[in-house]
Amino acid sequence: MACWRNTVRMNSHNNSRKTSARAVKSTGLLDQLREHIRDLHYSLRTEEVYAYGVKKFIDVYETKHQRDMSREQEAALVAKA
After folding, report:
1. Around Cβ 37, how many Cβ atoms within 10 Å?
2. Could you tell me which of 70, 65, 78, 60 has the C-alpha nearest to residue 27?
3. Spatial contact of 37 and 47, defined as CB atoms under 8 Å apart
């Protein structure tokens, strides 16, 4: 009987992850981030903090899109982080 209870607990715990099955419609990075966070039903404050963190990272490291960067620029960015 104890084994069954543990199995039920483990299964219910593993299924409790929040996942988003819907495809993202936005094209901008921050818009995609916000849309995904909303799909996960996170709070508005969490969305604001995550978006701020991403903006700050981009500002600090002056990053461009990966497809616009040379291999040397990518290596320098990774070395900075």
Report:
1. 19
2. 65
3. yes
Claim: this prediction has a pTM higher than 0.85: no
Would you give per-residue pLDDT tens digits along the chain (81 residues)? Answer: 455 454 444 444 444 555 555 676 778 889 999 999 999 999 999 999 999 999 988 887 776 777 777 888 778 777 876
Taking CA atoms, 46 is separated from 27, 40, 51, 52, 67, in Å, by: 21, 11, 9, 10, 29
Angle between helices 29-39 and 44-61 (to 10 degrees): 150
Give φ, ψ of 11 to 5 degrees. -65, -40
